[in-house]
C-alpha cells in the first residue's frame, strides 16, 4: 500500500516504524530546561540543520568574513537577499536557527549547513563532517525532542552535469547513500524526528540554462533536471529502507513546491525566472537587475533563489512540518 500523503497539491512521505525503542535510557533523558521549552507553541526543543548554501544561515559567511558580515545585498551572511527556507521553518516552530560557525572553531548554534556542502565529497564541509561535528559537540547523542532537518544534494547534482551515464547516476546513488546513512546515525544516537527536503530542480537554474544554450550542450538542462529527479528518488528509496525503531522520518517535496511556484511565476509577481539578479562572483548586480527589482526575480544569482522565493517555498515547507513522533 502506498504511504504517499497528498498535502495541498504536494506530497510528503512519512516513515514511522513499529514501536521498538532500543535507545539507552541516558540518551532518552532530557534536561529540565529542554522539557520546559517543549510545548504546544514550541513542539520541538531545537532545530538542527545539515545542508548547503540553501540552508546556510551564516557558517560560510561568518568564516570567510570573520568579524564582518558579507556585504549588501547578502542578508545576514546568507547566500541570498533575504531569509532562507529554514528560517521560515524555525519561525513556525518558535526556535532559533543560528549558525554553529564550526569552521571558525565556534560551536554555538544549531545550523551546520555550509555553502558548498555536498552529501558525498572528500572535504571538511560535506554531510559526514557536518553530522560528525554535531555529534562531537553533543556527546555523541541526538535529542529525541529536537527536529533534525537535512537539505542537501544540489552541489552533488551540479558536479555531475558534465559526466556521462552511468558515472553520473552512480555518483548520485552514492550521495543518496550518504544522506540515508547520516539520517540513520541521528536515529541510532537517539533522534526521533527527522525531516528531509527534496532538492529543487537544478536544471532550471540560470547557470545550467546558460550552459544549455551553448553549442553542443542543448540537452544539458533536461539532463540536470533528470539527475535531480534521480537523486531525489534514490534518497526516498533509501530512507524507506532504514531501521528506524520508533523514530519518524518525513520527506517533504520542496522540489515540487519550488517547481509549482516557478511554473506559475506571474501569479507571484515574478517577471524573470531564467536569470540571476546578482552576480555573486563579481559582487555586483547583473546588467538587467537592481536591488529594487529583486522581488521580480525568482533567482538571486545563477544558482540560489531570491529572498522572496525562499519565503514562498519556506512558508509552504513550514506548513508541512509534522508533529513530533509519538504525539
Structure description:
With 327 residues, the chain is α/β, with parallel strands linked by helices. It has one domain (4-16, 41-260): Rossmann fold (3-Layer(aba) Sandwich), CATH 3.40.50.1110. It is 35% helix and 13% strand. It contains 11 helices and 10 strands. The chain has a 6-stranded mixed beta sheet, with helices on both faces. It has a two-stranded parallel sheet with strand order 7-10. It is globular.
Give the topology, please.
Elements: E1 4-7, E2 10-16, H1 25-28, H2 32-37, E3 47-51, H3 59-65, H4 85-93, H5 127-136, E4 147-151, H6 154-159, H7 167-188, E5 193-197, H8 206-212, H9 220-240, E6 248-252, H10 254-263, E7 272-276, E8 278-279, E9 284-285, E10 297-299, H11 307-319
User: Which strands sit side by side, in order, in the main sheet?
Assistant: 1-2-6-5-4-3
Give the terminus-to-terminus CA distance.
Answer: 24 Å
Order of helices and strands: EEHHEHHHEHHEHHEHEEEEH
> Which stretches of 5+ consecutive residues score pLDDT under 50?
1-38
CATH architecture, by name, is 3-Layer(aba) Sandwich
Largest sheet: number of strands, sense, barrel closure: 6 strands, mixed
CATH topology: Rossmann fold
Structural class: alpha/beta
Q: Mind telling me the C-alpha Rg?
A: 19 Å
- The share of residues in helices is 25-40%
Describe the global form. Answer: globular
Mean pLDDT over the residues = 88
For the record, the CATH class is: Alpha Beta
Q: Per DSSP, what share of the residues sits in E-state strands of 2 or more residues?
A: 5-15%
